[in-house]
Records
---
Amino acid sequence: MSEAMSDIRTKLDELERFLGSSVSDALDAALQVEIPCGESPAWLELLDVFRQEQTAEDSRQRAAASTGQLFGAPPDELNMVLTEIAGSAKERLNKLEWKDDGQNSGRVQRIFNVIDCIPRETLILYRKRVMPQRRSMFAGAMASAQQSVRKPEPANSTSKTFIMRCGKCGAPRLKKDNFTCEYCDTPYAEQ
Ligand SMILES: [Zn+2]
């Protein structure tokens, strides 16, 4: 393997780890905020690291009241952080110099695609955790019928705030039907 080729691979590995672990850290900090649209020292630090301003308290309270959010940092603030992570990863990727040898270009293209999807896709998954579930009338009736049998889960249960991470790049593993990390393309079975 030529030096330039191994160099670009190392840099792409680094970039995938930056992306994966930054998104997981942001998601983690957001999910650990106990008051809906509230804050925590870790969350405020993260906003600071990614040079984002905290939303005014009255608008955060209004947002929490109108959506019925159960816990977690404001989705808008998470969106700003994720957009900043994606933007800086894209900038790093654009600066890399690499020979278009087919193998590298496929990988670079895949990472560009991942970057473009991060803010939107991560927010969809975040909202599923922190927002109240909207049930159909039928599902609601089923749930109340089952309540005598099954203990309802508390809103801020561990399963909702815990995220599994990819063993290679640290990216969140949020989709149960994925067998391969979306960020670094490593099969979970090989980790
Ligand atoms: Zn990964």
---
Amino acid sequence: MISDRLNVVITFNAKPENNSSAASLSPEVPHQESPAPSTLYDDQFAEWDSWETIHAVEAALATKHHVQLVEATPAALQTLIDKKPDIVFNIAEGYHGISREAQVPALLDMLNIPYSGSDPLTLSICLDKARTKEILSFHNIPNARFINAYSAADVANHQLQYPLIVKPVGEGSGKGIFASSYVEDEQSLLREVERITTEYKQPALVEEFLSGREFTVAVMGNGKTAKVLPIIEISFAGLPEGTVPMYSYETKWVYDTKDNDLDIHHCPAPVSDELEKRISEICLAAYNVLRCRDWSRIDVRCDKDGNPHIIEINPLPGILPDPADNSCYPKAARTAGYSYNDMLLSVLDAARERYGL
Ligand SMILES: Nc1ncnc2c1ncn2[C@@H]1O[C@H](COP(=O)(O)OP(=O)(O)O)[C@@H](O)[C@H]1O
Ligand SMILES: [Mg+2]
């Protein structure tokens, strides 16, 4: 176990509605020099972290290290130059565009400052689900057949088999994925492609719908020592009658809430040894071909014959600290015996090992 006390900076983006409470809690956050977040984000804040999460990460790393918070605004470049941290623990989601998660790591590469998590290339690719699937397909890692549609014309004469799902190519947290995203005919397909390309101003990813069981898999570590934490099953049994079984925006934020816990997450997932092995194998293969570092959470779903496929890779996994929020990476880590603090310290240690710190 590495024991040196390091100067660690946490880079983050905080949900703007809570910014007012931040100054008193975190005097080191450079609010004065930061442009008002409202001038810089659209609806990106859905992915940004709450102060509850940011302070939980701060408290975890502060058990072993000297920790400072740096809000990942454009002014952060100068702040990072001034603070010269030994290493950055990066959870910043970034501001605009498909490479937004890469912005802070790119600055850190420029400044030659070590940081936790994946590099800009991996973060950009994984946010683009079509690019990710192209790489997975090249390496024969199973994923649903798809088209990346820039307009309705791109789905003319498609060879995909209904039912299909239509989703924004570069969003997370269920954004843009509703019950209507599941389509069984051409008319609905065209409607959804039109909706995604106009409302989200990005291509629509049209995929064959995998109708089997769904899982999400937390991976920690690097290279040969990367390991899969206990698999979580996403069970749709508790959804209202007639709901399409999907972990959609409605399922994530409307049906399954703290007050109405649908018991959606089952960890460890009740799966056969064989299925567990196959899921672990495709997740580690995906993690390695995408060159993920330190940690990621990977969504998996089985087809109608029970074969697992990769849905997407999240190299910056959500880490809500309150177990009642059912945040998946911390849940898998808890099942593996890690406290929230141990989980984050282990991710930091994985990064330190890479840099020999
Ligand atoms: N090809 C697919 N087949 C079946 N369900 C899918 C497919 N793609 C996505 N889904 C459903 O939609 C949910 C959200 O899709 P995902 O790509 O993971 O988006 P997000 O980035 O918002 O989590 C998945 O958890 C799954 O339930
Ligand atoms: Mg997902």
---
Amino acid sequence: MDRFQEQIKHYDKLSQQGSESSMGRIGSDSVKKSLSTPYKYCEDFVKNLSNKQDLELLDFGCGTGSHSIAMALQGAKVTGIDISQLTLNKGYHLASQLSLNHRINFVRGNCEQMPFKDHSFDIIYCSGSMFCFDLDKAYKELNRVVRPGGLIVLLDTLGHNPLLNLNRWIKLKMGKKIEWSVKHIMKMSDIEKAKKYFDIQHIYFFDFFSVFVAPFEGIFGKFMLPFIYLVQLLDKLFFSIPFTHKMAFKFVCILKKRV
Ligand SMILES: C[S@@+](CC[C@H](N)C(=O)[O-])C[C@H]1O[C@@H](n2cnc3c(N)ncnc32)[C@H](O)[C@@H]1O
């Protein structure tokens, strides 16, 4: 089985399992509260763009379309692309439930070779998918389809924290993750590679203490809320200290295509 077939099989299966708690939830609300800060950051980023009503936005590796829908609700005209049809079906379903089909177009395709013309999009959002791709091909495609001066909003997992890497390795051994994805979690050097095509405008780092709180959310529910806010504040303070960034679980990087 080649890499793409393996990804399709894995994500088709995951989409059928779906977590009941996140079913039908949109954008940052579909993520555990303690780990939702980077997703909220991206939603606010799009919300605060002045011309968002006219934006053509691509959700690169869109999965179940939950974030595509959140972006469409901000006003953007969204195209979501993903290789897993069963995953995309969830997006179609949710978008029709919300009568958003006129603002969202889901396309089955390979992000490393997309069926879009050059310079088709003003902004490209990509959350949690870059580790699925051949990075050089993905950056090249992002550069091809985004308009000059356009933005890439990249939200992904960072692969330096040894404890988190141990957890990934355990999940790999348990068959819950694919070897390619575990080996290609992004490092700082992978973010740097974007400079071949883009200017890096900002990089933000998220989730250190929050990661240890997240597993308890399902058990203690709303009682966790004050604790979650406290831990998110601690994370903010932690990442204001130099040399802590590599310990982050997530990062958000804003890239701008040179004109
Ligand atoms: C971890 S999920 C992230 C989904 C979504 N962006 C999110 O944040 O919920 C990764 C997605 O990338 C998709 N994917 C993997 N390889 C792909 C490829 N070569 N082309 C398009 N999509 C791909 C998978 O099907 C999966 O839906």
